[in-house]
Design goal:
The structure holds two protein chains of two kinds. Chain A is an alpha/beta fold. Chain A is built from 19 helices and ten strands. In chain B, strands 1-2 form a two-stranded antiparallel sheet. Classes of the chains: A alpha/beta, B mainly alpha. Chain A: Keywords: Membrane, Transferase, Transmembrane, Transmembrane helix.
């Protein structure tokens, strides 16, 4: 018994039209008298420009399939079909829902691609698309002759288009007036401000990528300062806004899934930015009102923790800490140097302490551009205030790491082995007597000086660790604020039809029929796809700030770095120089 | 065990053939017949053992010579400069002995290279020690004297235990096993720890130079001397022990007494004890042991 896909909301008898390849899919019914009238009507539509797109999407032109009647006796929606090409037989009906394209609800066989890198129109030049064609782990779609495949899904999605064309109503005025007003406003803004905004954004992005040193491989400005990175993000958002606002209005040539993805992304960005600015205004007003109190608090805290406490800890280490007798000369040298450094930096900060109220006021004003800007200014402020701890940590860490390396090579010396740089392995080697004797003397020196170096390194490593944790929290907060998928989440809760992730058949029991009837429904996108950016960001953060890895870095003397800011930022517009890792 | 009908002559020691005997049957006559007792045992006699134990005696004597020199320098009974000269002189003597041994066994061309290398090494070590002396002096200056004595004794005991007392197989081999390097390290650490008790830089330099010579250079010489005749060994041992006893005599009678008793015990009594204990050696081997490959 052949299967016929029937729209769920059609209850009127008449001439039904639809597609025959690859499966019999009825699109709607025409209430006309004769077959010739119906065919005439369909032929008239072939001159409409959207007809071309329709035919291309659905594989062939819709044709008149036959007549249908609804039996009034049992009131069911089961039509009695008389197809023109076949005998009247018992058909199996599978129902589907017809949605107007302007509501952006549609069926899809695969999950909606919200990821920018995978978008077909953007990624056409990217290497990923070329690579994905050779991906043989994906299950190959078998070519079905008369079953459910992409063409039939397209036919489902465009079922109301001929209907609308026949009734000569413009489809895109059917949306709600609020949305229409918003889109018109956007179009106006876009036309007026698109080129200045776009050029300012591009200028800002270029400024942020200026390298510090004249070499090509030197770090760029946006790598060292969080504020400049945030300005870069804003500039990119501005450019994104300008380029994408045009496309919010759907052209009928774009596939509805692509359009829906772009629409969702665009409004997500807009909503995030508005949220950002709102919270930023609140935060900024708080800062501006209390700038005197906050500045006094800041001054006192900085002086107490970063200057006085560090000096006290250094003096404590110099005078037999916890009964440990460190080497007097070395310990004195270390503590004098570091105390001098800390005092010098403290003096410098004290000179600028008088303008800290003004600083907080300026931060309050800056945060009107978004609370993310305020947070990034705080991150930079923290880095500047603890610059002396950073220098002390770098120096003591370098000495500690050098000591560990020397100990390693001395161990090799005693075993009679040598590290072969050419082959990157350890070979046995015969040393001279003087090398052995010198190695012995050095080993004794190292063994007795090691506790002192370790004590000073441990102090500064702990401090650096604490500051890093603080910075990590702020950067996580920043990543949250910059990339939260609010819009998609709201859509998922409010209207899952707009985020399709596959179809499923559900059986509905109608009274009066022996067997349940199948309806094709939409399966909404899983949460992991909505949060895909998040999962990537969180996995990167977890890998970088893994406590075991950090402990290993501390013990081996490696430099504790904050995560590179570029890797916790998700780019809306994929650029060429970002590697796909 | 049951008495079986068939004679034991049909029995073969094979388990993969089903025989009429039980699996654990052994003819009573051949029970444990392949047990070997002390098969690798070479009985050792007294005097060769005494000669071998001379190495230990020499080592202990050198340690005590060093300790008495340290006490003399600390009590300012010995001028450090004199000590430096003595060290230089004795190392020259030792080098002359080494050259004599070299002329017997090593080719002429290699001897030239060895001589240059030795000159380079000595100049290098001399200058390196001279520059590192101020650092070495204050290395453990803060530690109290009691911990220093304890640390020193532990390190010297470690040195004695881990030292390489074997004879040298081939000439010119410098690199020893890890344990011998560790024992050298322990001795050097002990001497540096002791040097922190001294006050003058020149004294520290003299002591550490002497310890380098005694604990690192002298063992190589001792190795080569071992391979030579017994008379030289015996004379060296005698000289060194007499020197040690004489030097400690000026410090304290108890130590001298203990040292001489200890040396006599190690040299004469310990080999006797070993020889006497050999009759209790009861090593059982058999075909059930792990096979020992014979490598030619």
């Amino acid at each position: 018994m052949p299967t016929i896909f029937w729209p769920d909301d059609v209850r009127q008898a008449g001439f039904c039209y639809g597609w025959v390849n690859p499966a019999i899919c009825v699109s709607g019914t025409l209430q006309v008298g004769t077959l010739e009238d119906a065919q005439e009507k369909l032929r008239q539509l072939s001159h409409v420009p959207q007809w071309e797109q329709l035919v291309k999407l659905c594989g062939s032109e819709p044709i008149i399939l036959g007549t249908c009647e609804f039996s009034q006796t049992n009131g069911s929606r089961l039509p009695v079909l008389q197809l023109s090409m076949s005998e009247p037989v018992d058909n199996i009906f599978v129902y589907y829902y017809r949605h107007s394209p302007s509501t952006l609800r549609f069926y899809a066989l695969e999950t909606l691609g919200l990821d920018t890198a995978n978008r077909a129109d953007v990624a056409s030049g990217s290497e990923y698309l070329k690579l994905s064609q050779h991906d043989f782990t994906e299950p190959r779609k078998r070519q079905v002759k008369s079953g459910l495949d992409d063409t039939v899904i397209n036919q489902f999605n465009s079922a109301l288009v001929p209907d609308g064309l026949l009734q000569n109503t413009r489809l895109h005025t059917r949306q709600n007036p609020l949305g229409f007003a918003w889109l018109t406003f956007l179009r106006l803004v876009n036309r007026r401000f698109s080129s200045p905004v776009s050029s300012i954004s591009r200028l800002l992005a270029c400024l942020c990528s200026v390298p510090i040193f004249p070499f090509r491989t030197s770090p760029r400005l946006k790598d060292i300062s969080a504020t400049i990175q945030q300005i870069d993000v804003r500039a990119e958002q501005g450019e994104f806004f300008v380029t994408e606002a045009v496309t919010v209005h759907r052209r009928s040539s774009t596939h509805i899934s692509v359009h829906s993805a772009r629409y969702t992304n665009f409004f997500n960005t807009v909503w995030l930015m508005l949220n950002d600015i709102t919270i930023g205004l609140a935060f900024g007003s708080f800062l501006c009102e209390n700038h005197l109190v906050l500045s006094r608090f800041l001054n006192r805290t900085v002086e107490d923790i970063f200057i006085i406490w560090v000096q006290r800890a250094l003096v404590w280490l110099d005078s037999w800490p916890a009964g440990l007798k460190l080497n007097t000369e070395l310990s004195r040298f270390y503590s004098h140097t570091f105390i001098g450094l800390v005092t010098a930096w403290g003096g410098l900060l004290l000179r600028f302490a008088s303008c800290s109220p003004a600083l907080i006021y300026i931060i309050g004003i800056v945060s009107c551009g978004g609370v993310t800007l305020a947070i990034s200014v705080f991150i930079d402020l923290l880095a500047v205030l603890t610059a002396h701890i950073y220098i002390c940590y770098a120096v003591s860490g370098a000495v500690y790491q050098r000591m560990l390396k020397t100990a390693g090579s001395l161990w090799n010396l005693f075993r009679g082995k040598r590290y072969n740089v050419l082959r990157n392995r350890t070979d046995s080697w015969e040393y001279d007597i003087d090398q052995l004797i010198f190695g012995t003397i050095l080993f004794t020196l190292l063994a007795f000086l090691f506790p002192t170096v370790l004590a000073y390194y441990a102090l500064f490593a702990m401090m650096r660790f604490g500051i890093l944790i603080l910075q990590a929290c702020m950067e996580t907060l920043l990543a949250l604020l910059n990339h939260f998928p609010l819009f998609a989440l709201m859509l998922r809760i409010k209207d899952p039809w707009r985020l399709p992730g596959g179809i499923y058949f559900s059986a509905i029991n109608t009274p009066g029929l022996s067997h349940p009837q199948l309806v094709i429904k939409n399966q909404p996108v899983p949460f992991s796809t909505i949060f895909f950016q998040y999962i990537q960001l969180l996995s990167r953060l977890a890998t970088h700030y893994n406590p075991l890895r950090l402990l290993r870095c501390i013990f081996s003397g490696q430099y504790l770095a904050a995560i590179s800011r570029y890797s916790i930022r998700y780019n809306k517009i994929p650029e060429e120089h970002i590697s796909i890792i | 065990m049951t008495v079986l009908v068939q004679t034991p002559k049909d029995w073969t020691k094979i388990l993969w053939k089903r025989q009429s005997f039980q699996d654990n049957y052994i003819p009573p006559a051949s029970f444990l017949s392949s047990l070997r007792r002390n098969s690798n045992f070479k009985p050792q006699t007294y005097w060769p053992l005494v000669l071998l134990s001379c190495a230990i005696t020499q080592h202990i004597s050198t340690i005590f010579i060093f300790l008495s020199i340290f006490v003399w320098i600390q009590q300012s009974k010995l001028d450090p400069r004199t000590m430096v000269w003595i060290t230089g002189g004795s190392s020259l003597v030792g080098y002359a002995i080494w050259e004599v041994l070299d002329s017997i066994s090593v080719k002429t061309s290699e001897r030239y290279a060895n001589r240059l290398k030795a000159l380079k090494s000595s100049i290098l070590i001399f200058l390196a020690l001279m520059s590192l002396t101020p650092v070495l002096r204050t290395l453990t200056a803060a530690t109290s004297s009691d911990s220093i004595w304890a640390l020193t004794s532990i390190l010297f005991i470690l040195n004695t235990l881990l030292a390489d007392y074997s004879a040298l197989k081939n000439a010119g081999q410098v690199q020893g096993r890890l344990t011998s390097v560790l024992s050298m390290n322990a001795a050097m650490s002990a001497s540096i720890v002791l040097a922190s008790r001294l006050t003058a830089d020149i004294a520290v330099f003299a002591l550490i130079l002497f310890s380098v010579q005694v604990f690192t250079l002298y063992p190589f010489l001792r190795h080569r001397l071992k391979a030579s005749s017994t008379i030289i060994q015996g004379t060296t041992t005698m000289l060194l022990s007499i020197l040690a006893v004489a030097l400690t005599a000026s410090l304290s009678w108890t130590i001298t007494f203990l040292l001489s008793i200890g040396l006599l015990l190690i040299t004469f009594l310990a080999p006797a004890f070993l020889v006497w204990a050999q009759k209790y050696k009861n090593e059982i081997r058999g075909p059930w042991d792990v096979a020992v490959p014979k490598v030619n």
